[in-house]
Amino acid sequence: MNITSSSFDMLVLRPLEALKSQQAFENVPILRSLESRYFLSAPFFGLVVFISYLTWLSSASTPVVKGPVAGYRSFWEPTFLLRLRFVFNAVGIMNDGYYKFKNSSYVVRRMDTDVTVLALKYLDELRKSGLDELNATHANIHNVLGGYTNLNEMKFNDHFIKAISHCLNPNINEFMKYMQDELSFSFKVDIPDFEGHEWKSIDIHSLLKRIISRVASRIMLGLPYCRDETIISITESHTICIFGVTLILRRFPPILHPLVALLIPHRWRIWRNIREMKKITQTILDEHSAAKASGDTSHKSTEPKTLLKWMIDNAKPHQKSLHSLVSTQLAVTVAAVYTSSQVTSHLLVFLAQNPRYIAEIRKEIADSTNDIENIDPSKLHKMEACLSETLRLNPPQTNAPQRRAMQDITLKDGVVIPKGALVAFPCTPCSMDSSIYPDPQQFIPFRKENISVPVTTPTRNQLAFGWGSQACPGRFLAAKEIKVVAARLLMEYDMEIAPEADKMRRYYDIEDLRVLNPSMRLRMRRRVLEA
Ligand code: HEM
Ligand SMILES: *[C@@H]1O[C@H](CO)[C@@H](O)[C@H](O)[C@H]1NC(C)=O
Ligand SMILES: *[C@@H]1O[C@H](CO)[C@@H](O)[C@H](O)[C@H]1NC(C)=O
Ligand SMILES: *[C@@H]1O[C@H](CO)[C@@H](O)[C@H](O)[C@H]1NC(C)=O
């Protein structure tokens, strides 16, 4: 707080004082003739700020691929209005471009930048040649204003992706065992007590965020650290804080970011999270090296495998600092927790609204195992179809995947993507296209039941996990995790949509993020199993 108010003082109040003093104007006749008192009066100042703001919003200084701009309601609509409308109607604007300019690329205007939505035909080219100059990490860093959210670290710490693809994915069955163990613990402590057979209203997303934070911490840090309340609360809150900073800063021109950033409470929390995480990580590092020094490689106190251990042992020298390790952990958390908890919540809300499908899914689970603490997600085909349908209707990011051009790129047909351009693909318009998915608005959980492509394999019509070599490295874990968590909740609890929630909006779109309505509630009760 001290820092903030004194910086405010230095950056804003003092220069204003200086300006206000008559001296500044005395030698300039024109200015002297303007009464400085009026010149600096609040309405005039306000007008100047307002006009500068609109000018900033109307300018299009970011590089884009040549193409039409989507979403203008008429020839007369000013650009600043189009940008403002994108905040709450991004999908509407992307749909406009998708249907109007079918098979060619178009531009959408976000408040902070223009984004080129590439035609789907370019997907093949992206996969075949790899096109590494179109970089997913740099697109993310740009989107979350890495400099203000500590995510610039992702530029130097590419092991946050390697930890997943070299440690987590090859050992996924082992990690699934830890996960199921952590779930048993979480169900005991995080789900409210149900006396007998009563119904309770449950904030489903908060519950799932907590459950999935525990699982993520277990995989990252292992026992016993993952049970630390501070860790869980960091894991739960970090992504929200990053969204907070991002969504506020995008409303302001970059020149004001350093100032505005100081005033955003979410940002204070990001830095607190980093400090707390460092303390705990230091403890783990000390124990890790003590265990190594004493030749005790069995690590009795902790899990044999964790992502953090892998990073400690495999990071390059410049990635081994405490700050690097903590930033990397938090980058994985940001990618993993919010996405999975949102998708699981959507899935359960859909099923609660369509209870006739629950029986079928329960039968599939019961047929696959009689040990609910040891589910094999690869046997749950109906559940997988249901997950795929949920991702089709409600992907966490509606214009995934996104890439940033690290240099000028010429595609095979001659189209040029200029250096610095942010490009995206029309994930949502395409998955809601009735020529691809009949009756697209309808939740048809088993729509893809007989399609042999797994949900983790991106296709032209299913881009929620991204595309090509840079697609989400955590998708194999995510799919298994969501299936197992949903399966256990469905086997142990009855669920129905709370009456007040049934008519509610299911989600809000804020720019390209799709967020479940935070007021969404499910009614749950403990199941009574017939003997
Ligand atoms: C339903 C859950 C999830 C969804 C929908 C999702 C979606 C995505 C998408 C669309 C991308 C960008 C891919 C591209 O540009 O082609 C991505 C990247 C990524 N995801 Fe996921 N993801 C999910 C869960 C997870 C989980 C559980 C983890 C971690 C274990 C994870 C880790 C990552 C990482 C590390 C990246 C790379 C970011 C970068 O390149 O900078 N994700 N994810
Ligand atoms: C778009 O491209 C696809 C495949 O190249 C083609 O089948 C389709 O007819 C095209 N649509 C339009 C509107 O040009
Ligand atoms: C994207 O950029 C990051 C950070 O500079 C780098 O580590 C990564 O290898 C790049 N990705 C590709 C596919 O080139
Ligand atoms: C999938 O195949 C089974 C068995 O042939 C059939 O009963 C079911 O209706 C099919 N599902 C869909 C969505 O087509």
TrEMBL record:
Alphabetized UniProt keyword annotations: Heme, Iron, Membrane, Metal-binding, Oxidoreductase, Transmembrane, Transmembrane helix
The keyword Oxidoreductase is annotated on this UniProt entry: yes
SUPFAM superfamilies: Cytochrome P450
Binding residue positions for heme: C472
Pathway: Mycotoxin biosynthesis
Cofactor (UniProt): heme
Family matches, as PANTHER family: CYTOCHROME P450
Stated name of the protein: Cytochrome P450
